[in-house]
Recover the amino acids of this structure.
């Protein structure tokens, strides 16, 4: 809750209860303590999340991206939903969560729009990404599932929790260096699991 919300809530409470000046001071002190506790919890959780994301305050820049770097990551489908961009384009937002390794619990968000105003190559790339995501999240689309971004996101939700391999490739964007290109491919985790199991055999 913001400071302004706390103040508004406190004023309303004092007006309704008609408390004495001393009591009002006690109530106000209590509200302040509650706000401090809430704020500290929010601050602590935020800093913990930044540290768990790999940020090194001694060596990393403040502007260091918290997003995953190029590499192969075992992930699970965490969520899929429809949203609208600032430009008014509908899109499917897919969130994948890394399930093991040094980047465990970090997430990657994939934005897939099929707006007619986008270039043909972007539409085709987004289409291939969507189909591969569905394939390895074990989601089978029907025609009705692909009616729009809302129904597509709802269909992908059937694969939430399913795990697969994400192959992420990050490439420089000369026109907008702060937003590098993020290219995806996906594969099964079965082969990796089999190799690990064989390594543990006693013969």
């Amino acid at each position: 809750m913001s400071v302004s919300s706390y103040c508004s809530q406190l004023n309303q409470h004092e007006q309704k209860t008609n408390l004495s000046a001393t009591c009002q001071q006690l109530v106000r002190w209590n509200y302040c303590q509650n706000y401090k506790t809430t704020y500290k919890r929010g601050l602590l959780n935020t800093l913990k999340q930044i540290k768990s994301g790999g940020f090194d305050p001694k060596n990393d820049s403040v502007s260091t991206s918290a997003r995953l770097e190029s590499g192969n990551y075992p992930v699970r489908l965490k969520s899929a939903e429809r949203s609208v961009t600032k430009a008014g384009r509908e899109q499917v937002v897919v969130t994948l969560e890394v399930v093991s390794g040094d980047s465990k619990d970090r997430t990657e968000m994939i934005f897939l729009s099929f707006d007619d105003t986008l270039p043909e190559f972007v539409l085709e790339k987004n289409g291939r990404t969507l189909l591969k995501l569905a394939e390895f999240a074990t989601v089978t689309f029907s025609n009705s599932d692909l009616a729009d971004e809302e129904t597509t996101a709802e269909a992908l939700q059937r694969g939430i929790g399913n795990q697969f391999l994400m192959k992420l490739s990050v490439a420089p964007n000369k026109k907008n260096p702060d937003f590098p290109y993020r290219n995806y491919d996906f594969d099964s985790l079965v082969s990796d699991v089999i190799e690990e199991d064989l390594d543990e055999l006693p013969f």
